[in-house]
Amino acid sequence: MASNRDEFFSRPSLPGHFWAGQCNLLGGLDQEQGGTWLAICRQGKIAAVTNYRDPSQAEGKLSRGHLVRDFVASNQSARSYLASLTPSQYSGYNLLLGDAQQLFYSSNRGPILEPLSAGIYGLSNHLLNTPWPKLRHGKADFERAIHQANFNVERLFDVMLDDEPAADSDLPNTGIGLPAERFLSSRFIAGGDAALQQNPELANHSNQHRLLNYGTRTTTIVLMDNNGGGRWFERNHTLNSINRTKTVAFSW
């Protein structure tokens, strides 16, 4: 799994670590709500969440990061965990959860439970495999990276650190306006001055300040074997700076 976490830089967070008191859970920590965006446990369970972009919908009462935290920290199977949820309590989400043997996809804007067969999938801020440009090209780059001889994790970092925006003609219309669609169209979202240089129209956007303080904060690569063991590689980014070298790694 190769993943980027896009979030406001002002939102307090901790990078990936084994949580105190829950030493089997490895993931970053959203210090604002106490959840996480991606986590695994030593027993092989894994979960990840993305927002579903729909500005017309009201905010949910519960944090989406709890979906990941609570599943990975529980003894429940993916099926029983999903059956226990009340999806309407959350803002729009996409959820991946399972283990090394079986992965499921769930969304409160789409399928409640979809077992995933072997293959390559992409997930952004719409339903699974929605062919947004960064997803379409990202899946192709990901497939090339994992099938090259002498596989190297650096190739997956290269896939996820691509900051090339999509052509305007390829952009989706999710109700946020063209400059914002353009800003969010690359796999790696650079906020701040870099975003303004790439997309000068942001200077006149009604949400200019918020957008320029938003971007990709964490890139994570997770490798798992059939027995639930594996490795976690993470790079954390700051506003106006892509981290291309400093990697934190864990194994279990």
Given this structure, which CATH class is correct? Alpha Beta
Please tally the helical runs, counting DSSP H or I stretches of 4 or more residues.
7
Rounded radius of gyration (Å): 17 Å
Helix content: 10-25%
Would you count the extended β strands for me? Answer: 11
The quaternary organization reads as single chain
Biggest β-sheet strands, sense, barrel: 7 strands, antiparallel
Overall average pLDDT: 93
Protein name: NRDE family protein
Pfam families: TANGO2 (PF05742)
Organism: Halioxenophilus aromaticivorans
InterPro entries: TANGO2
General description of the model:
The relative contact order is 0.16. Strands 2-3-4-5-6-7-8 form a 7-stranded antiparallel β-sheet. A 4-stranded antiparallel β-sheet has the order 1-9-10-11. The two termini are 16 Å apart. It has helices spanning 65-73, 78-83, 133-147, 153-160, 178-183, 192-198, 208-212, and strands at 2-8, 13-18, 25-30, 38-41, 46-51, 93-98, 103-107, 114-116, 214-224, 230-236, 248-251. Strand 2 and strand 3 (25-30) form a beta hairpin. Helix content is 22%, strand content 26%. It has one domain: 4-Layer Sandwich (Penicillin V Acylase, Chain A). The protein is globular and about 50 Å long. With 252 residues, the chain is of the alpha+beta class.
